[in-house]
Amino acid sequence: MTTIPVLKVLIVGNGTVGKTSLVRRFCEGSFTSSRVATIGVDFQTKLVNLPSGQVKLSIWDLAGQERFAVMRPGFYKGGRSAALIFDVTEPQTLEDLPRWREELLGVIPTVPSVVIGNKVDLERKLDPEKGRAYAESIGAVYVETSAATGVGVEQFFDTLARLAYGVPIARGPGLPPTARTSPAGPD
Ligand code: GDP
Ligand code: MG
User: Could you say which architecture CATH assigns to the domain 6-165?
Assistant: First the structure.
């Protein structure tokens, strides 16, 4: 019997950007428009197929509210990759991503990350180039998603799993030029 590697991945971003909805869409294939805010941390696992074999993602969905800030660093420990999530209908949520990144890097200085622009099913208030530019500036992959329609969700978690496992990201049209896959990556 082979042992399936368990990879801890972190989901961060302001409250209401859709973190819990994205995890739920990926793990359960469902979406509900009314959601109870995450208290502290939500936790789910899911098997993912990578070219090298199966891995089990342990997905830590952390509450974005300020009052949980004191708990978060403890939860970051052991994270292999991280998703920085913003909402394309709320420009402030992208402005706040550098703070999330700093908080993460304070605990896990070399964690590779993916930047996610969520809620693309709604009328956007942010140019996709803004999200892409931020992702490029930190050497991260940029993916746009909707937890409501499911668009981009597989690509998001596949990227997160590959980063966690250290597998290079296959580049396709429209993807930024580099994905940081090792501590020696750019920045
Ligand atoms: P979290 O605080 O980041 O975990 O955000 P939630 O997952 O709780 O979502 C906050 C609200 O946004 C809920 O009402 C969700 O139904 C809604 N929501 C999340 N993702 C999407 C999306 O992709 N499209 C739309 N239209 N609504 C979304
Ligand atoms: Mg939540």
Answer: 3-Layer(aba) Sandwich (3.40)
